[in-house]
């Protein structure tokens, strides 16, 4: 594999499986992924098309701020991360259970 394909493969960390993401997949053909904090929309689009062999219509991203939590007496902060909502073109689908 070329270096560019390896970089694209490292952009997607994991799919996010929740009630909200399942509803988005059923109603709007959207899938939700945890991605690198430095990833752009174009990189995310190319990574999904490469990994799953589908056509992407649009990508929306949002930065999720880490929560401040207590660990005993000390205050700690969870890491910030980035979430991507990927909308597929009609006729394409991702089966996350088998992927």
TrEMBL record:
GO BP annotations listed: translation
The domain of life is Bacteria
Q: Which InterPro entries match?
A: Nucleotide-bd_a/b_plait_sf (IPR012677), Ribosomal_uL23-like (IPR013025), Ribosomal_uL23/eL15/eS24_sf (IPR012678)
Keyword Ribonucleoprotein found: yes
Any one GO molecular function term: structural constituent of ribosome
Keyword Ribosomal protein tagged: yes
- A Gene Ontology CC term for this entry? ribonucleoprotein complex
Give the UniProt keywords, A-Z: Ribonucleoprotein, Ribosomal protein, RNA-binding, rRNA-binding
Q: Which family does it belong to?
A: Belongs to the universal ribosomal protein uL23 family.
Name the PANTHER family on file. 60S RIBOSOMAL PROTEIN L23A
The UniProt subunit note reads as follows:
Part of the 50S ribosomal subunit. Contacts protein L29, and trigger factor when it is bound to the ribosome.
What HAMAP family does its record include?
Ribosomal_uL23_B (MF_01369_B)
Q: What does this protein do?
A: One of the early assembly proteins it binds 23S rRNA. One of the proteins that surrounds the polypeptide exit tunnel on the outside of the ribosome. Forms the main docking site for trigger factor binding to the ribosome.
* This protein's name: Large ribosomal subunit protein uL23
The UniProt gene name for this protein comes to: rplW
């Amino acid at each position: 594999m070329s270096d560019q394909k390896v970089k694209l493969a490292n952009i997607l960390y994991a799919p996010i499986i929740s009630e909200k993401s399942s509803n988005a997949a059923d109603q709007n053909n959207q899938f939700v992924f945890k991605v690198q904090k430095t990833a752009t929309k174009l990189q995310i689009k190319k990574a999904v098309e490469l990994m799953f062999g589908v056509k992407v219509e649009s990508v929306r991203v949002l930065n999720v701020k880490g929560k401040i939590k207590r660990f005993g007496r000390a205050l700690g902060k969870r890491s910030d991360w980035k979430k991507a909502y990927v909308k597929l073109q009609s006729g394409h689908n991702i089966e996350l259970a088998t992927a």
